[in-house]
Amino acid sequence: MNRIVGYNKSVNDVDFTIKKGETVGLVGESGSGKTTLGRCIVRLYDSTAGSIKFNVNGKMTELTNLSTKEMKNIRKNFQMLFQDVYSSLDTRMKISKIVTEPLDIHNVGTKKDRIERAKELMIKVGLSENDLEKYPHQFSGGQRQRIGITRALSINPEFIICDEPVSALDVSVQAQILNLLVDLKNEFNLSYLFIAHDLSVVKYISDRIIVMYLGKILEIASSSDIYESPRHPYTEALLAAISKNKAGSKRDILLKGNIPDPSNPPSGCVLHPRCSYARDICKNISPELMPVKGKTNAFAACHLTNELNLKYFN
Predict the structure, then answer these.
(1) What's the whole-model pTM score?
(2) Residue 153 DSSP label
(3) Domain spans in the chain, listed from the N-terminal domain onward
(4) How far apart are the C-alpha atoms of 41 and 264, rounded to whole Å?
(5) Cα–Cα–Cα angle for 91, 95, 98, nearest 5°?
(6) What is the C-alpha separation between 233 and 231, in angstroms, rounded?
(7) Among 227, 217, 244, 239, which residue's Cα sits nearest to residue 300?
(8) Which homologous superfamily is 23-206 in?
(9) Could you report the per-residue pLDDT of 225-253, keeping only the tens digit for each?
(10) What are the angstrom distances between the C-alpha of 310 and each of 103, 272, 276?
(11) Pairing label, strands 208-213, 216-222
(12) Are 76 and 157 in contact (CB under 8 A)?
């Protein structure tokens, strides 16, 4: 007999908005809840509480209350790119079927219209219309991600969640895919939530950055503020990790230990067991996400935000 012995809160008290045409980076270590949050937004996972609202034709629509049929009508407005793109592509299908499947599901256009749309998008992402007759195994990792992007764009969405779409690619290919995503965003006026564990990846593409740890948001700020003036010790540590990976850098990573088990989170601030700045208040009281003094649209969840002189790393 199975019985419930406890619950994991993979995402807890997370609150943010994404504007039309904006790219928001979402960063944090593995296990911080980034992917869970992304999948909850598009309802690949159903959240147990909270609210998810999406602007449909000028009206904010609550997604958590929608039936499966109602959700299908709205789902064409948003798509998702996956980290392991190969597993998201049916290996038994030709690329033409993979790319046009969203159009089939939503009954968009004729069969000829769908193929023409697929040809147009394949060229736009840097592939050939002749590639439509191939299978996923015939492509490299970067090419498969381009196919994933083509499939996502086929239904003409407004919002795309990019779940670590370049983390499995070589650095040179990463740059190509990031440049492509920026170009497509500008051309189609897309909004992105770009999930990554590496701050160096989101720096180039993001207007704002959300720093997440153990299911909570610890900092939100513009991309420039995050890199030039971090206001949370965890952000400082993530920036130090980037610097440490650069040739000739002598920086030490500022965090000790590993991310805690989410089924048994620390009391007070979730970061305090690993934070070198932690004081007694950090161990006992959980800090709220509050505006940062002297900054516009910047927020941090740290009792010491206005006291610490945190470093940034070039």
Answers:
(1) 0.91
(2) H
(3) 23-206, 225-300
(4) 25
(5) 80
(6) 7
(7) 217
(8) P-loop containing nucleotide triphosphate hydrolases (3.40.50.300)
(9) 999 899 999 999 998 888 755 544 444 55
(10) 49, 16, 12
(11) antiparallel
(12) yes
